[in-house]
Amino acid sequence: MRILVCVKQVPDPNTVEYQIDPDTKRLVRDGVTNVLDPGAEVALEAALQLAEVDGDSTVTVVAMGPEDAEDALRRALAMGATDGALITDDGLAGSDALGTAKALAATIKELGFDIIFCATESTDGYTGMVPGMVAELLGIPHLSFVRSLEVRDGVLTGQRVVALGYQTVQCPLPLLVAIASGSHEPRYPALKGIMAAKRKKVEEYNLADLGLAAGDAGESGARERVLELRAVEERQAGTIVEDDGTGAAQIAALLRQRGVI
Amino acid sequence: MLDFYAVDRLLTAEQRAIRDTVREFVDAEIIPQVRGWWDRHEFPAAIKGRYGALGLFGANLPEEYGCAGVDSIAYGLINYELERGDSGLRSFASVQGALVMYPIYAYGSEEQRRRYLPELAAGRLIGCFGLTESDGGSDPGAMRARARRDGDGWVLNGAKMWITNSPLADIAVVWAKDDEGIVRGFIVPTDTPGFSAPIIESKMSLRASCTGEIVLQDCRVGPEAILPEAKGLKSPLGCLTQARYGISWGALGALEAVYSCARDYATTRTTFGKPIAGRQLVQDKLVRMLTDHSLGLLMAHQLGTLKDAKKMTFAQVSMAKRNNVRVALNGARAAREILGGNGITTEYPVIRHMLNLETVDTYEGTHDIHTMIVGREITGVGALE
């Protein structure tokens, strides 16, 4: 099976306080520690587990970003991916979700695939739109919020997380699955994996390689504009009810007043 | 990683990746549990498989034997991160890698390498190293253990003391003098008749590590047990050089742990109206600890560079082990003082590291022995003899 995983390099959510550049309204990515998106690690783990069960699979990781996004790909390769593809071009800077999806879809077409794994959303942008767009551009089904899956005879059976529980679905390959966050525990890259990763192939693609024009992606092609960014308003302090024997009644009155009960 | 002098800039991408993966592992799987293990005097047996899966055992040995084949600096960083968790859990990996796998790799036959190294690398076999005897660890040449020729095999007799991992080991690399008085090395399966390994109880240091004796009573091994290339005391001492190299990095991990704890504590603990971090005496302690850490890390990095260039001398290793462990121990004592009463409970990591480091300061060549090794090197006059 040819498995592809879309991954992303993001500022480390565990150590970096995310800052927005007020002029470009983009996340500040320079001068901070960047890592493989923890959400992408979950999707990769799901893909690696599928490949291990299948036994005759390759897992290719695909990322779009600046040249140093190769570090994130190397981490994915150290975790066990077979090879990587990096889409990097100055003309891609400022891409909106659709531009990103076009670049990913064009690369994925070049690479060929049976199944594509994505995170449900990235840990920096949080739009959650790219997986669906990639599937649409490739003309394949998109299963979102998938928490477990298996593939038999070219058909995927999986569980989706839905509002009231889990929905079991089936879909023939090829398709794209967006893996629910927290559904798989990513493995640590083993030392042998890290040493092997440097010898694995990472193919680079630019806009011309993918047959994309400047207006297809990047800032000039973006149809989505961030108009304004504001800090979340600080919440007002809550009401503290001191229990002098009437605490329960006071809380009940508050809930009633707010229409909760 | 605590890195005031930007040593990170000297690291390769692989070295950083290896450090980061071990750091994540230690943060997730060791630090949250180590207090309980240490308090209960319990070695966490499940960690064998985890170390094996990550490739932490003998990580610097070649890939053809199932090892990761990392360079010396990456190997040092692994030790650093493990000991940031706990000296005993670093010792567990050090013994397996530097004192069991290394002698098999360096002095063993190709058949012994193929048979044992992949199993030891994966953590399916655990080993221990029997050199020290109870009458004086600093003078291994005076060992009493004997290996007597018996047909095509050998009969081993003797007793070894302070042996990390011996009660849980599957094999022991045992050192004994042959009929000519030459020190020889043997790979002894621990289920061999005549081999026993009583556990040493009630340690107040390295409590998450398993320590025991080795007792050899007419323990007969076949010809396949002897390490063919190990002849003379220089062979076990060569292993110790490997282990001491790892310790010179590891101790700095413990120093990071106690420094970080003391700094955080000092910035939140308020007396006389302001945090104690604002007191000159506390700042003096913290700055000394950080300076020692920075100097030690630069020394360890250069030592690793020399090791990979095959230019490292054992005297340089002695200086690094001697210095880095002692500054870590002093730092732990200073951190304990900054934490006041809280410094004596294992609720904070400081006293655990401090007590562990008392052992690390003594084992693998005591502080004083290393002083005399370096002293002999610079004066040409031996104080040991």
Structure characterization notes:
The complex is a heterodimer of chains A (261) and B (385). Chain A is of the alpha/beta class. Chain A has a single domain (2-221), classed as HUPs (Rossmann fold), CATH 3.40.50. Chain A contains seven helices and eleven strands. Chain A has a nine-stranded mixed β-sheet with strand order 9-8-7-10-6-1-4-5-11, sandwiched between helices. In chain A, strands 2-3 form a two-stranded antiparallel ribbon. In chain A, strand 7 (142-152) and strand 8 (155-162) form a beta hairpin. The longest helix of chain A has 17 residues, at 38-54. Chain A is globular. Chain A starts with a strand and ends with a helix. The model of chain A has no long low-confidence stretch (mean pLDDT 93). Chain B has three domains: 7-122, Acyl-CoA dehydrogenase/oxidase, N-terminal domain (Butyryl-Coa Dehydrogenase, subunit A, domain 1, Orthogonal Bundle); 127-230, Butyryl-CoA Dehydrogenase, subunit A, domain 2 (Beta Barrel), CATH 2.40.110.10; 235-379, Butyryl-CoA Dehydrogenase, subunit A, domain 3, CATH 1.20.140.10. The two termini of chain B are 41 Å apart. Chain B has helices at residues 13-39, 47-54, 72-85, 87-107, 110-122, 234-268, 280-308, 314-338, 350-362, 367-379, and strands at 127-130, 146-150, 153-164, 171-177, 183-189, 195-196, 211-221, 226-231, 270-271, 274-275. The longest helix of chain B is centred in the middle third of the chain and has 35 residues, at 234-268. In chain B, helix 4 (87-107) runs antiparallel to helix 6 (234-268) and helix 8 packs across helix 10. The chains are: A alpha/beta (261), B alpha+beta (385).
